[in-house]
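Box S1 | Example of a co-folding query
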Amino acid sequence: MYHWSQSFPRQRSCLRLGISLALPLLLVLNLPGVLALDMSYTIDEEIVNGTVIGDIGRDSNVSRLLSQDDFRSLRYDILSYPDDDAALFAIDRVTGKFRTRARIDRELLCRYVVRCKLSLHVSARTASGQQFYTFPITILVEDINDNSPTFSSDSVSVTLDEDVAVLSSIPIPDAVDEDIKENALQRYTLAVPSDKFGLKVTRNLDDSLVPQLYVKSALNREDQPFYQLTVVALDGGTPQLSGELQVNITLRDVNDNPPRFLQSRYEVNVTETTPVNSRILKLEAEDADLGINGRLR
Ligand SMILES: *[C@@H]1O[C@H](CO)[C@@H](O)[C@H](O)[C@H]1NC(C)=O
Ligand SMILES: *[C@@H]1O[C@H](CO)[C@@H](O)[C@H](O)[C@H]1NC(C)=O
Ligand SMILES: *[C@@H]1O[C@H](CO)[C@@H](O)[C@H](O)[C@H]1NC(C)=O
Ligand SMILES: *[C@@H]1O[C@H](CO)[C@@H](O)[C@H](O)[C@H]1NC(C)=O
Ligand SMILES: [Ca+2]
Ligand SMILES: [Ca+2]
Ligand SMILES: [Ca+2]
Ligand SMILES: [Ca+2]
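Box S1 (continued) | Returned holo structure for 2-acetamido-2-deoxy-beta-D-glucopyranose
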């Protein structure tokens, strides 16, 4: 039986191993004495630099093909060709333990790929030089939730006519989360619900979410000229990460109020002795609208 004894810094870190005899590669390489064993491991991205991923001498069962002395004399190397990913890993020449030697950032290494697969080849040679093996190694990198949904700016400002129709939509920018699957952006919500504005979310053909605000009920600048909403974008990771967008909404005045006298009835007693052209009454009126809509003549 086969036992894993490494301890991993992340609790979620898991390691699976599959080994299969890959004869086709043996034929392709067409070298005498070459044995190709395919091994695969699964690691989380962003594991601590230097984390041991596997032990090639042990995991390949190559000891079964060699005398104890030959097995002990094996020297291991990572072949730098043809794998671009070889530079991310290092192997102990004597023990065959291989580890990361760089940051393994899934978002950087596999930006547009859901299945993030790294490849490298390890060679093992006996001291006598008579036995030479190459082991193709596959490393699947699993996503962790290390990116928050992010809006391109912290706040946007929108101006609406105060008589804007109910259900009119107000476009807002969307958020981006570079993680995948449940760690990617899942939903949008308003931090504080509003009785004047709602949030609706539609889906693009590519399944990405499009958030939109809409007018939920009639607005009136004379009641409230300015609103501030906070749109929250959430991913589905554990713990859940979020990003916020502040939306400033300013209502533009519409001439929807007639001028009004402050009193509906005026009464004045004019005596016979009142001189011509003297002021007998001050009429006062006001208009709730703004600027030219509120100016009286
Ligand atoms: C190596 O040994 C383990 C444990 O016996 C076994 O599960 C695995 O299939 C073996 N791999 C090869 C390539 O023989
Ligand atoms: C990772 O560790 C190796 C030494 O094992 C070092 O050379 C390398 O610079 C380190 N990389 C990072 C990103 O820390
Ligand atoms: C929104 O209003 C806040 C103050 O309430 C301000 O700090 C922010 O800059 C405004 N955003 C825009 C885009 O005007
Ligand atoms: C006008 O005169 C009448 C009768 O004298 C009086 O009842 C009323 O209060 C006066 N109104 C004003 C605004 O002075
Ligand atoms: Ca990452
Ligand atoms: Ca990630
Ligand atoms: Ca995320
Ligand atoms: Ca108005």
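Residues 2-142 form a domain with the Immunoglobulin-like fold (CATH 2.60.40.60). Confidence is low (pLDDT under 50) at residues 1-34.
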